[in-house]
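Repro:
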Amino acid sequence: MKKLIAVLCATVMLLSLVACGSSAKGKYTIGICQLVTHPALDAATQGFKDALVEKLGEDKVTFDQQDAGGEFANCATIVDGFVSKKVDLILANATYPLQAAASATADIPILGTSVTDYATALNISDWSGTVGGNISGTSDLAPLDQQAAMIQELFPDAKTVGLLYCSAEPNSVYQIQVMEGYLTDMGYTCQEFAFADANELSAVTQTACDASDVIYVPTDNTAANNAETIANVVLPAKVPVVAGESGICSGCGVATLSISYYDLGYATGEMAAKVLTGEADISTLPVQYAPQVTKMYNAANCEALGIAPPDGYEPIG
């Protein structure tokens, strides 16, 4: 009987180890769903991976990185695959991947990055700074009041500000609503110019140029992926664009109050290491923000439009 009990105990232990998979051996598989390929999101993903490798060791982490091509349906398919594979943690890079991951699993830890506002993205009405459950992450929101103040600093004589954004992106809608409040309080007349997708972008941008002294573009993934389309309209029209992040600004803008997406991703990777090793409970981890913001300018576009950035602005590399 004692031998039988010993055999049964050993069998249970073996099955438990098998069930726990790689994480029981201190090795982890991380599923990365990135909305689309562009410099900001690429930098966040790289920072995330670098942090995890540094904290846990290169031989301890395997990354399954997939690009959704800008489509929510693809995000859902990718994340469902991660759940089926029972990955140890999911990185959701941008809002759509976060929403897809939140719908797909309540068990696997999910960390978002390049997400502007978690309350908007996840429909949380009583936002306290912590999502709870199996979700946390980092936000790419540069202070919107400071962005509005920058528009006033650069263009004190402007009267009208066009707010150009993709209506299909909840976090873009959020930024536009907040910015419109700040700019209206400063005395600007604001008008929203929303495009549903990239196919409408050129025509909507032209309409915005015709009605605006300055255009503001938030941290909008569709705009970031099609910044050249915006540039092809605004530069000939001589209408300056202030952008929510440096990737958009480098394509079509003159100035931005930007964060380092690499640093943001790195901070997310540090959070992931703590969650995976049990050092932190993801349900109590507050959403983190970029440690610093930088005023930056696009030298080529400023020169083309005859704009001299004030002191304290750094050129986009």
